[in-house]
Amino acid sequence: MGYWCTNLLTIVSILLLFPVINGWGIDGHLTVCRIAQSRLSKAAADAVKQLLPEYAGNDLGSVCSWADKVRFRYQWSAPLHFINTPDVCNYKYTRDCEDDNGEKGKCVAGAINNYTTQLLTYNSGSSQADNNLTEALLFLSHFMGDIHQPLHVGFASDKGGNTIDVHWYRRKEVLHHIWDADIIETAEERLYNSNVDDLIDAVQKNITNDWADLIPRWETCSLNKTACPDMYV
Ligand SMILES: *[C@@H]1O[C@H](CO)[C@@H](O)[C@H](O)[C@H]1NC(C)=O
Ligand SMILES: *[C@@H]1O[C@H](CO)[C@@H](O)[C@H](O)[C@H]1NC(C)=O
Ligand SMILES: *[C@@H]1O[C@H](CO)[C@@H](O)[C@H](O)[C@H]1NC(C)=O
Ligand SMILES: *[C@@H]1O[C@H](CO)[C@@H](O)[C@H](O)[C@H]1NC(C)=O
Ligand SMILES: [Zn+2]
After folding, report:
1. Which of 1, 78, 205, 216 is the most interior residue, by most CB within 10 Å?
2. Distance 188 CA to ligand 5 centre (A)
3. Nearest-angstrom CA–CA distance, 115 and 77
4. d(Cα 19, Cα 170) in Å, to the nearest integer?
5. Pocket of ligand 2, candidates 55, 60, 134, 140: which has the most ligand atoms within 8 Å of its Cβ, to mutate?
6. What is the DSSP letter of 226?
7. Average pLDDT, the chain
8. Domain residues for 78?
9. Which atom of ligand 3 is found nearest the CA of 206?
10. Mean pLDDT lowest for which of 59-68, 169-178, 222-231?
11. What SUPFAM superfamilies does the annotation carry (predicted)?
12. CA of residue 206 to ligand 3 center, whole Å
């Protein structure tokens, strides 16, 4: 009995923790990474293929949630998944991009800058030995998803909507989790027969048709910057 109680407690606390620790859910990240990989230049696609861990084959999507899995092993990486503002509806890199200890750059925008800079050393022969570029790739592709989840840039006081209870149809959830997973999962169920590949195809179609005019703007990163995370916030 004691054994089961302990186990049940563990499971319950893992479930409770889940909304706090997760970025987009698995399918949100998978979708982002599958689409991103399909749009890479030849050089970038080759680099990604080289850098992906063997078990991933050549599928970036399958390892897009790796950063969530290592969050406990690499505790230093936990603050890199989000940004907290001081309960105001605007964001300033210099004010907000820091962890709980006030260490600057330790937020999702800082991490995108960091891992982009690291990946640009690929094939340069220089500091390649200093950084694990496989990890840089897995972090970057995950954080590009996280920064687009609206509640990953949110109020410090409600932990990005993690302390706000709402109902999603019949289920009680925290607001953060609605954005991480429920919206995507419900859309998948209702519109795509629970098939994530069909959701991905539908987004791909929109990108090549309805949204084609917007793409140049998405791809522009001005003023010689290597990355433009502030634009996505
Ligand atoms: C940059 O990447 C290194 C290697 O993963 C990590 O130790 C460091 O905390 C990162 N810094 C930020 C701001 O992401
Ligand atoms: C780089 O990181 C990956 C994923 O954590 C790991 O499997 C691999 O062994 C690391 N490579 C080196 C050279 O440390
Ligand atoms: C595709 O674009 C249309 C028109 O903007 C929109 O209604 C639809 O929800 C989009 N589908 C996806 C999967 O993004
Ligand atoms: C971008 O960088 C190049 C080379 O470093 C420099 O010549 C150019 O003036 C820069 N452009 C802007 C807009 O800062
Ligand atoms: Zn995340």
Report:
1. 78
2. 21
3. 12
4. 18
5. 134
6. S
7. 89
8. 4-232
9. 1
10. 222-231
11. Phospholipase C/P1 nuclease
12. 6
| Enzyme catalytic residues | 24, 29, 68, 71, 81, 142, 146, 152, 176, 180
**For 75-109, what is each residue's pLDDT tens digit?**
999 999 999 999 999 999 999 999 999 999 999 99
Q: Is the dihedral of CA 161, 166, 170, 171 positive or negative?
A: positive
Total number of domains constituting the chain: 1
- Specify the 3-state DSSP secondary structure of 24: coil
Write the DSSP string, 133-172.
HHHHHHHHHHHHHHTTSGGGEEETTTTTTTT-EEEETTEE
Atom number of ligand 4 nearest to Cα 224: 1
Alpha-carbon gap, residue 9 to 183, rounded angstroms:
28
Ligand nearest to the backbone CA of 81: 5
Mean pLDDT value across residues 134-151: 97
CA 133 from chain center: how many Å?
Answer: 17
- Tally Cβ neighbours within 10 Å of residue 134: 15
- Choosing from 114, 142, 146 the residue with most ligand 1 atoms within 8 A of its CB, the one to mutate for a pocket test is 114
Query: What's the CATH code of the domain at 59?
Result: 1.10.575.10
Average of pLDDT values for 27-45?
Answer: 96
The pLDDT of residue 144 is 97
Question: CB 189: neighbour CB atoms within 10 A?
Answer: 11
